[in-house]
Design goal:
alpha+beta, Glutamine Phosphoribosylpyrophosphate, subunit 1, domain 1, six-stranded antiparallel beta sheet, 19 strands
């Protein structure tokens, strides 16, 4: 879903600007263009279905909702004074309210919906894409070096700073308000608040609370089909869905039946007597999808994966409500990078986050900008302030930081891309489930204890099936003796003998694969432009040209690939912006 809105100025200037954006925000030719005139504002959207937009009006104001929005209370009498908007719930949405005295914009509580904005005393411009900002004649957005540093360090946005100076990404748990004669300001809205409500409960009682919340969250999301992988998050959702939908429910998986992910998903579907379909990936489309991401996201989200666009292409005709297991590990497994973590300091959190980006000393050599040391230190300090701003127990900061950072810029990016062809539903983003997770003690999360126990206790038949972990370790959670023996032989076979890649993400993320080779070749054309900002020798060492094979260590496959893909995205971005 793409949306662009402008508030202030005269109607003629607003409409003249928006009329030139259709071809740009319509990233697929099947998307439909919708236009709305609200008090002092004009809006244009490119959507798979215009039914995703609803507008309500009073005599002097209006409210536009885009996406999966549920109103738990009636519309407030004063749109602009009610910035908390606790009456709104939903997995991926934007709400815009406007009147003669200004406007406010907000998104879902996790901030998964990408909202960027730019303001002066005369007008306010917002969009789900970064592409439209430079198309406005009064926006002169040069490269924001601090924005680039934040992306390179953390694989996400730090302090709202994007690659474009003056263009800000809205913070999670906030709305942005603007009034004529003033600059836009952010305000807390529907912010998540950790508690200690379940600290003294027994583990069985904690399991019961989470079980009830996840059961309710799944039942309320009456989707058309489930995106089912071979992993734990979607398998747990499948268990709960089976209680409400029974046999015959459709499930879909990405990849080939040769992949563990698809093979194990098929077994889960078979155990539940569901229909299952695998969607193979057309890697020849990777370059087209990469250019869409670079043009509209401009490195503000993870560039690691290009395969989920296949679902947009495959499913868009029916515009289905697609239930997913996204954010499962962010909500119920906050220590995913270190299951036995005992250090909850910012230093440890930064180390985990930075492991997918560039180390500060590497970044100092890579960037050809003035005062690079001071800028890097300032960005790290901003990230520290964000981490320490959460008023909660130290371990809960890990959970909150993961939701406000990795969940938004890695998982949330996939969700917002899928929204061009499907209506994504996220049971793990449910408000009641988030409330329960944010009330649990540290012991509930260690070693992925919570999710594993839920699956084994509630759905033991599913716990007895092989589990994809993006490695060769695929043993069921509840293995029989035969399973244990078989798994040892399979580990030896796949690790030492077989040369067939069975791991889905290793197959799709491989920079030596055909799809990524197309992207590398196109990015290479802009290497010289990127070198106006990046040191030539350092860039050459970090990212070899496309005719060279890239080699990474077994344990560094995803992290090294993430860093190199950031450079690829910047080189592609440079072709239009430097």
């Amino acid at each position: 879903m793409n949306i662009v809105g402008i508030v202030g100025l005269c109607p003629g200037l607003r409409q003249n600007y928006l009329s030139g954006l259709d071809s740009g925000i319509r990233i697929f030719d099947w998307l439909k263009i919708g236009r709305w005139e609200l008090p002092s504002s004009s809006i244009v959207c490119a959507l798979n279905s215009l039914e995703r937009v609803s507008v309500q009006r009073t005599q002097s104001a209006a409210c536009l909702c885009l996406g999966a929005v549920r109103q738990t209370k009636g519309l407030p009498d004063q749109f602009l004074s009610d910035l908390d908007r606790s009456d709104l719930d939903g997995d991926l949405h934007l709400t815009f309210t406007s009147g003669e005295d200004g406007c406010s914009v907000g998104t879902d509580p996790l901030g998964l919906f990408p909202l960027y904005y730019y303001s002066t005393a005369e007008f306010f411009l917002f969009s789900s894409s970064l592409w439209p900002f430079r198309r406005h004649p009064r926006v002169r957005a040069a490269l924001d070096v601090d924005g680039l540093i934040g992306i390179c360090l953390s694989q996400g946005i730090v302090g709202g700073r994007t690659l474009l100076q003056g263009v800000t990404r809205l913070s999670a748990g906030h709305r942005v308000a603007w009034r004529p004669g003033q600059l836009a300001t952010e305000h807390h809205a529907n912010r998540l608040r950790p508690t200690a409500d379940l600290f003294n409960a027994t583990f069985d009682e904690q399991i019961d609370v989470v079980d009830a919340a996840l059961r309710s969250a799944t039942a309320r999301r009456n989707g058309d089909l489930l995106l089912l992988s071979g992993g734990l998050d979607s398998r747990l959702v499948a268990g709960y869905l089976s209680a409400t939908h029974g046999p015959g429910f459709p499930a879909i998986s990405l990849g080939s039946p040769r992949h563990f992910d698809v093979k194990f998903a098929q077994q889960v579907a078979g155990r539940l007597a569901w229909h299952h379909r695998a969607v193979d990936i057309d890697v020849s489309s990777f370059l087209d999808h990469a250019m869409v991401e670079v043009r509209h996201e401009q490195l503000s989200a993870s560039f690691a994966d290009l395969s989920f666009w296949q679902l947009v292409v495959d499913l868009r005709q029916s515009d289905p409500a697609l239930i997913t297991g996204f954010c499962g590990n962010n909500v119920l497994e906050p220590f995913w990078d270190d299951p036995r973590r005992a250090d909850f300091s910012f230093a440890h959190a930064f180390q985990a986050c930075n492991s997918y980006g560039f180390r500060p000393d590497t970044l100092r050599r890579l960037l050809r900008v003035q005062d690079v040391d001071e800028n890097i230190s300032a960005v790290i300090e901003r990230l520290r302030e964000e981490y320490e701003s959460f008023d909660c127990e130290p371990f809960q900061r890990v959970l909150m930081f993961g939701l406000s950072h990795r969940a938004r810029f890695h998982i949330g990016a996939v969700v917002s891309r899928l929204a061009f062809g499907v209506r994504p539903l996220l049971p793990y983003a449910d408000q009641d489930l988030l409330k329960a997770a944010l009330a649990l003690p540290v012991t509930a999360f260690q070693a992925r204890r919570l999710q594993k126990t839920l699956l084994c206790r509630r759905f033991p038949d599913l716990a007895r099936l092989p589990l994809d972990t993006a490695t060769f370790f695929t043993r069921p959670l509840m293995p029989t003796f035969v399973d244990r023996v078989r798994h040892l032989s399979l580990l030896a076979y796949h690790g030492l003998i077989s040369r067939e890649e069975r791991r889905y993400y290793h197959s799709m993320f491989d920079l030596n694969g055909a799809g990524w080779r197309f992207v590398r070749a196109e990015a290479e054309k802009s290497r010289s432009k990127a070198e106006s900002i990046l040191d030539r020798d350092t860039l050459r060492r970090l990212l070899p040209p496309p005719d060279e094979e890239i080699r990474t260590g077994v344990t560094d496959f995803f992290k090294a690939g993430s860093r190199m893909k950031t450079l690829l995205a910047f080189m592609l971005w440079s072709s239009e912006h430097l």
